[in-house]
Amino acid sequence: MTSAISAMLVFMLALMFFIGRYLNYLGYEVNYVRNFTDVDDKIIARANELREDPIKLSKRFCEEFHLDMAYLHCLPPSVEPCVSDHMPNIIDMIQQILDNGCAYTINGDVYFSVDKFPEYGKLSGRKLEDNRAGERVSVDTRKKNPADFALWKSAKEGEPFWESPWGPGRPGWHIECSAMSAAYLGYSFDIHGGGMDLVFPHHENEIAQSCAACKKSNITYWIHNGFVNIDSEKMSKSLGNFFTIRQVIDLYHPLALRLFLIGTHYRSPINYTIAQIESASDRLFYIYQALYDSQIVLSQHDEASRKDSIPAGTASCINKFQDEFLVSMSDDLHTPVALAAMSDPLKLINDLLHTRKGKKQGLRIESLAALEKTITSGLEILGLVPTSYEEALHELREKALKRAKLTEDQVRQKITERDTARQNKEYERSDAIRKELAAVGIALMDSPEGTTWRPAIPLALQEEQVASP
């Protein structure tokens, strides 16, 4: 019998990337709600600039968001409500708050009275005077308390509006989330998430208005993800260091970006650098190559002929990985530790595939099968399993060529030139070609069968990583 976990989300990195998958793995039935704010001051302003309907503008960007989430292997929500479709729910909740004496009206506007909620600030621990008045809404001197926030805004020229008991208008930002969460999850549910910037005042206001509408309102866990920094500076349009998911995945595999993101604990700031995303891409290629090579070997042996046992060393390696993985994931979703736990079983796979001692090990095929299954299970929980390892490796190579501004034929030509130089004992020329390719992230690998190439961290970035403390 499964338990039920419900969650409301504005934007929550942990939920979108792996918490839903992990809870499903543990046997919970997850009701995952992700709402879209399609009625908002900034949206209206942007729509007016573009001479476009705000709702249509929002819908277009919601569709683009869906594409980005699909690229990153984020599970879709159970339900995905939009503000414009839930005006009756919003109006009903505002009326409940008014009926309970926790809000007041002024000329068609409705404001929540924070003085009526003594526990205001209990989530963030901040005081009323810390409220960031005017951040999303203009300051209104008519308010009884400067911290009071809008539940309903009277209609203004050039803005969409809906009819209400207080006149035509539209909802305030905060009430939207409370009304939609109550509509799909009730007033009490398990997890509510968002960015750390939403703790105050947005989530603080959600708590106040939800409790004002229903005294039994309660959320068991609030979880907030850290900011994304660019070279140790917060990502910001004003700083000119703002970029989109599409810009990143134009040069890097989407799952390399996913691996990079879950390589940092969700509550910590994520520092995006070229060196970091290169490292994630390199690691992803290593993981997929090991698993693909393992699948090739396994396909050459009849599964029915395999024995039911594996060597003690392999069993110990698998058990250690599973223990570390589950403990770290259960410890506030500590994904960096879970990823690090894969190192030993991946190393053992490569030993069994490529070393003389590994190839001679008893029950080698059984070990490979067990290790491949174990690693894949971990990758599934983290959302890192591609459609096929072969296809993903090809895509990683294509992205590497694009970053290097080379074609496959040009790399092959360089390999041929190097082979010729080596045959002619022109070793300086041979080394120069290898270094030239390494500088742009193309590593050459020599074997008795010939020379091949694979993506790698560009040489300058490798040297930078070695030099840094």
TrEMBL record:
Give a yes or no for keyword Lipid biosynthesis in this entry.
Answer: no
E.C. number(s) listed in UniProt: 6.1.1.16
A Gene Ontology molecular function term of the record = metal ion binding
Q: Which Gene3D superfamilies match?
A: Cysteine-tRNA ligase, C-terminal anti-codon recognition domain (1.20.120.1910), HUPs (3.40.50.620)
Which cofactor(s) does the record list? Zn(2+)
Q: Does the keyword RNA-binding apply?
A: no
- A Pfam family cross-referenced in the UniProt record is tRNA-synt_1e
Key words, A-Z:
Aminoacyl-tRNA synthetase, ATP-binding, Ligase, Membrane, Metal-binding, Nucleotide-binding, Protein biosynthesis, Transmembrane, Transmembrane helix, Zinc
Domain Cysteinyl-tRNA synthetase class Ia DALR span(s) in chain numbering: 324-393
A Gene Ontology cellular component where this protein is annotated is: cytoplasm
- From its record, what is one biological process in GO terms? cysteinyl-tRNA aminoacylation
Transmembrane feature ranges: 6-24
Q: Classify the source by domain of life.
A: Eukaryota
HAMAP family hit by this protein: Cys_tRNA_synth (MF_00041)
Which family, according to the similarity comment? Belongs to the class-I aminoacyl-tRNA synthetase family.
Looking up NCBIfam families in the UniProt record yields: cysS
Q: Mind telling me what this protein is named?
A: cysteine--tRNA ligase
Q: Which organism is it from?
A: Nicotiana sylvestris (Wood tobacco)
